[in-house]
Design brief:
The protein has 43 residues and is mostly helical. The chain contains two helices and no strands. This is Transposase.
């Protein structure tokens, strides 16, 4: 789903942390994604 092949390097874990702290600070996007995943799992 990320467009990566099995042999491709994955993004460094700090990239996600940086985006969460800096880029999406004050945003509810992570909660919205989580809620959507839970709803899909329940259906």
């Amino acid at each position: 789903f990320l467009g990566l092949n099995l042999t491709d390097p994955v993004p460094h874990h700090s990239t996600i942390s940086w985006n969460r702290r800096k880029r999406f600070n004050g945003s509810e996007i992570f909660q919205e994604v989580f809620d959507e995943i839970v709803l899909q799992a329940m259906n």
